[in-house]
Amino acid sequence: MRIFIFLSFLSVSASTDKWEILDLKWIEFKSKFDKRYATEEIEREHFENFKENIAKIIPFLNQKDKNWVPYSYLTPFADINKNDFLKSNKLGGDYKTPLQLKEKLYNTNGKSTSKKSIILSEDAPLLKMDSNSIPDSYDWRDHGAVNPVKNQGQCGSCWSFATIGNIEGVAKKELKELYNLSEQQLVDCDKSDNGCDGGLPEQADKWLIAHDEGLERESVYPYEGVVGECRQDKKRERVFVGKFLHIDTAETQMAAALVKYGPLSIGINAGPMQLYMGGVSDPSDEVCDPEQLNHGVTLVGYGLESNSPKNPLIYKQYYEQISNYMSSYSSKSLVGSKRFRNYIDFKNLNLREKNLMIEQKVLAEEEKEKALTESKPFWIIRNSWGPQWGEDGYYRIVRGRGACGLNQLVTTAVDLSKHPHDENQDQQKPIAQDEQIPIIKKTEPIIYV
After folding, report:
1. Would you call 212 exposed, middle or buried from its count of C-beta atoms within 10 A (0-12, 13-18, 19+)?
2. Measured between alpha carbons, how far is 204 from 379 in angstroms, rounded to an integer?
3. Catalytic amino acids?
4. Which residues, in sequence order, are bridge partners of residue 381?
5. Among the listed residues 423, 427, 416, 381, the one whose alpha carbon sits nearest the alpha carbon of residue 177
6. What are the sequence ranges of the domains in the chain?
7. Is 174 left (phi over 0), alpha (psi -120 to 50) or beta?
8. Which of 8, 46, 217, 312 could bridge 79 with an S-S bond, Cβ 3.0-4.6 Å?
9. Within a 13 Å sphere around the CA of 20, how many CA atoms are in the beta-carbon half?
10. Exposure b/e, 58-73, CB count within 10 A at least 16 = b
11. Separation CA 273–CA 283 (nearest Å)
12. Contacts made by residues 25-31, CB under 8 angstroms, sequence distance 24+
């Protein structure tokens, strides 16, 4: 009888610890990203997404990443359902596979279109370059060709950020000035794309060329994160695109083009990016199908990681253990839970358990760790989800195997020119990281409704 009572006590205690872990993680997450919800029902829905991501999605991603990069709940989108997250990425609208996207770009399907736009599609060359003399690493951030990371907010306008990031970088290379140009202008005015419902950088380039449109500075046409009335003004246009180029899918060609022309616009499957927290991501095709492109980003550099994180397998084991521990939770919501009376004791106990686990794993994993210290080639991607995401807003992903389809839709604008009246104007200083133009015209945090 005493044994039964004792075992029951241990079971209840373990269950309570599980609830407290989840409660504490939820509070930590909301505090870190200033998350607020309009009603308890909406918060409960996001909490259920959070719990699902911790229990199932994060362990699955950790298991399937070849570089053992830990995915975490401490990312801005950990409270969003995976399917809803993927739907919010709008590269190409309803077109997702590279084949579908290319058919959309190069087939008129019987629809009328201007002769100039047809010529543009046919004449844009698939660029082949000499890749034998490129450096082992290159980062356009080191050459002043990349503005601070911006945030597209809840608008599916990634395509406009990829387009502008490419043009800004090429302008620095060709025109010797780092402009800060307007994504909102494309969202409002480029009717060949679909504003907050998706688009393609190549289509944006075509629109700029075919209509002889120039891009305005963001300071006079700021980002709002919603589609509004087009209010571009010819007098304010500053940068014009002469033509664009398709880049070959070979990643050595991509690297050569990046060095020669500047940052490139690319399409990518953003699935694993939702819970990415840093490191060189190497997701398997199982979790990041290269045939499902849904996000537009700017490729700004590449490199070679020679020093893998200390004990990467140890950290991975820890994440898996915690995630497995969480998977036994019941479906009961913990929103508004008051059970924090043993917070200090639990926190100390958790720390001891974590340290003990690491100590026990170190010796057993040393040999495996050595195998993971080999150099890992990677790409550097500038994302448009704000500096709180990833590595200060950037994403590093393995280079050389077309991971997540990043090599399928690669383009760049070239032959840029600037407005003749811009010659004598003072060059615009790049915006500082802490002076970024907001995604919406208010200072309050985004409240989910």
Report:
1. exposed
2. 24
3. 158, 295, 383
4. 299, 395
5. 427
6. 2-85+311-370, 89-306+377-448
7. alpha
8. 46
9. 17
10. bbbbbebbebbbbbbb
11. 10
12. 25/50, 25/54, 25/73, 26/50, 26/334, 28/74, 29/73, 29/74, 29/78, 29/79
How far apart (Å, rounded) are the C-alpha atoms in residues 130 and 110?
38
Tokens for 181?
A: 């140009």
Contact 51, 326 (CB under 8 A): yes
Which residue has 């009328």 as its token pair? 112
Q: Estimate to the nearest angstrom the gap between the alpha carbon of 301 and the chain centroid.
A: 15
What is the structure's pLDDT at 67?
Answer: 74
| Of 114-118, 122-126, 157-161, 259-263, minimum mean pLDDT range | 114-118
pLDDT digits (tens, 9 = 90+) for 221-256: 999 999 999 999 999 999 999 999 999 999 999 999
Query: How far is the C-alpha of 144 from the C-alpha of 173, rounded, in Å?
Result: 9
Helices (H) and strands (E) in the chain, counts: 12, 14
DSSP secondary structure string for all residues of 356-399 = HHHHHHHHHHHHHHHHTTS-EEEEEEE-SB-TTSTBTTEEEEE-
Q: What is the CATH number of domain 89-306+377-448?
A: 3.90.70.10
* C-beta atoms surrounding 335 within 10 Å: 16
> Which amino acid belongs to residue 317?
Q
At residue 263, φ and ψ (nearest 5 deg) are -55, 145
- The rounded distance, in Å, linking the Cα atoms of 256 and 247 is 10
Write down the H helix ranges in 194-342: 201-210, 251-261, 312-326
Chain centre to alpha carbon of residue 219: 24
Q: DSSP 3-state assignment of 415?
A: coil
pLDDT band at 14 (very low <50, low <70, confident <90, very high): very low
Q: How far apart are CA 400 and CA 420, in angstroms?
A: 42
Burial label, 265 (beta-carbon count in 10 A; 0-12, 13-18, 19+) = buried
How far is it, in rounded angstroms, from Cα 186 to Cα 164? 9
Residues present in the chain in total: 449
Nearest CA among 259, 280, 294, 281 for reference residue 409: 294
Q: For residue range 328-352, list pLDDT tens digits in order.
A: 433 333 344 333 333 333 344 455 5
